[in-house]
Amino acid sequence: MLSSTLEHYLLVIYVSKLNQEEITCRDIAKKLNQPIKQVMQAVQRLHYQKYIDYSTYQPIEINDNGIRFANYLITRDRIVEQFLIILDITENMQMEKETICQYLSQDTLMKMEQFVLFAISNPQFVREYKLFLQANKESILLKYLS
Predict the structure, then answer these.
(1) Domains and CATH numbers, the chain
(2) pLDDT tens-digit profile of 36-59?
(3) What is 62-117 written as a DSSP string?
(4) Which residue in 21, 54, 68, 84 could disulfide with 16, CB within 3.0 to 4.6 Å?
């Protein structure tokens, strides 16, 4: 697995490929407001791990392995985001999503996907859950922290 930072770099490269744009380390550094040296190290790691094809002074090319993994990352993010929406998580959603994504196992992600699909295909389930939330605003578990 990649660190969240490397995942972010890979997604920038992938989006550039989708937009049919050539991208270099300098371009990534500008887009992410990062030092060029840091970007070059990250790109070299992505190359070493066989997600991209990179050589100095040439545009970065994402390979099939990188494309597959980028699609996985996008799908994982969508599943987690839908899960948080179903749970009615609105505060700090982006931070929550990023944190959850970093620690999910494949098995948990698959079960989360099934839950999201179930909830989407059963809107009455989501409505009942939101009614339950309104009626039960107090936490049983968290009261022990007070």
Answers:
(1) 4-62 (1.10.10.10), 74-135 (1.10.60.10)
(2) 999 999 999 999 999 999 998 899
(3) E-HHHHHHHHHHHHHHHHHHHHHHHTT--TTHHHHHHHHHHH--HHHHHHHHHHHH
(4) 21
